[in-house]
Structure formats: structure tokens, C-alpha cells
Design a protein that fits this description.
This protein is of the alpha+beta class and about 180 residues long. It has 4 helices and 9 strands, in the order βαββαββααββββ. It has a single domain, classed as Alpha-Beta Plaits, CATH 3.30.70.100. It starts with a strand and ends in a 5-residue tail after the last strand.
Length: about 180
Amino acid sequence: MDLVTAAPPEEAIAAMAAIDGLNMVPITLNTQTGPERQLGPESAGAILILQGTFIDEERFAEFWMHVADLMQLLADAPGFIRRYNFAEGPHYTLIALWRSIEEAHGFFSRPEHQAAMRTSFERRWNYTHFAGLWEAASPRPRLFFCQTCEGVMPSPEPSCTGCGADLPDPFGGRDVRAAPVIS
């Protein structure tokens, strides 16, 4: 089974572009997986959103060098599932999934993270900054739609309960590949 890794069809892009208030721009997208990379979004007990803007290019560069150090620490952070950060014009946003709010707080409490936050205030890296951490109030299972029959199973069933077809998990590494990117 190959997963689709393409932009929406041109017709859909055109329809979305016509919606008032919708803005589509080219972006840089960074993703990072952690020790819990095999978990899907339904396993996130906590969701972090960071947002910032910058006004000084020197401080902007300094900020990103410090972020690179913290990203290295995330690679082994207990409970860290994955994160996505992207820029939309002057707006930089990060969304991170954690297995539990306690594990997210554990990372934020690390001396390195605390030092980075202090330095951020001292050096005034950001023009604006927002950080919000939410505990998942009502987690729901991720659904798998069998491509052989009409079955719909909650994750992480390894096979369809209707026809027995394998249901590879794109996060859990059960024999699923991403299709080549279509440009």
C-alpha cells in the first residue's frame, strides 16, 4: 500500500482560493518525530501551540540557533510524539503532540529549556510570542477505512474486522510506504 503525498488537486485548490479569508502561500515545513513516533495523533494527551513573529534579523537568527539545540533535546524527550512548525509570511507556528501533559511539562522544566526562555526575554528575540499547552479533553480513536470492503475500524486494529485485510499503520510502521511526492 502506498500513501498519497501530494498537494490537493488543482480544482480543489482553485475552489479553496476563492473562499474569503483563506490564504494559501508557499511555506517551509519542518517536522520532527520523537521517541513515541509510532503513536498516531489519537495518542496525544497534550498539544502545544507556539506562535511568534520577529522584527530583527540578527535576533531572528540567534533564536533559531537556540531552537536547534532544543530540537536536539526533543529527539530523546520522554513522551514526545511529533511536532510540526511552519511559517506563513511573518507568522511562525509550531504544533507539538505529547503523550501526556506531565511529559510535556517535564521537557519544559528542563534546565536547557528554562535557560532558553530566560534568554528569549533577555535578548528580546521575538516581536510577539504565544505559548499554549492543552490537555486532550476528549481523545478519540483514529479511524481506518478498509480499502477492500466497507469496514471502518478504530486504531490500532492490525486488520479489518469485516474482511481480514491488513491495515498498515502509517505511524506505527506496519508495512506502509509513502508514495513519491508529485510536483
